[in-house]
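User: What would this chain look like folded?
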Amino acid sequence: MLAALAQDTRLSIFKLLVQAGTEGVAAGEIAERLGVPGATLSFHLKNLTHAGLAVQRQQSRFIYYTADFDAMNGLLAYLTDQCCSESSPTESPSSCATSLACALK
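Assistant: Here's the prediction, encoded as structure tokens.
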């Protein structure tokens, strides 16, 4: 999942999907809003889907993509657990988690 998000275009797509919420965004709209060519967008959406960060659904003749919020929350929980389990004595796990969430924005 982290490898998928490490690429700038995929991170921008994922951010757009998260902001769109559970309704998702049609592939054509993603391409238009981010200025990504269709073939390039397909490659990146496939990568995000394969990583478990996005799901697709067909509605009429359009394909909509949505962020997989359960997977995203699982990743954040894992990172919080792994990165904050040995936080400094002056830093509480909740402040560590807040810092981690802000760093991922």
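The first strand starts at residue 25 and ends at 26. If you want, I can go into more detail on any region.
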